[in-house]
Amino acid sequence: MSNLRKFYELLQIIKPYIELRDTRFRRAIGAEKKLMVTMRLLATGDSFRTIGESYRLGYTTVQEIVHTTCSVIWEVLSKIIMPEPTEGTWKNAEG
Fold this sequence. Notes:
Layout: H1 3-18, H2 31-44, H3 48-55, H4 59-81, H5 87-94
Organism: Parnassius mnemosyne (clouded apollo)
Protein name: Transposase
């Protein structure tokens, strides 16, 4: 599976949780851009300010995007990757 395909698969999973609506006062930052910002920061380790300059965002906006997106990824994927153990899974683990 290509990295681009994985990106869009993850985006589809978390999009409902990170996408906001536009208001009369400003346009919302799209879910795709939020995930791009987060993945770039995690991949490069660049500062919030450097990432912000690349995407024309303030560093506090980048901080909020990364914190929110990482929290959503953890909340959503942890339930898929590490589901709550059941009695059956405990018995299987015992051998």
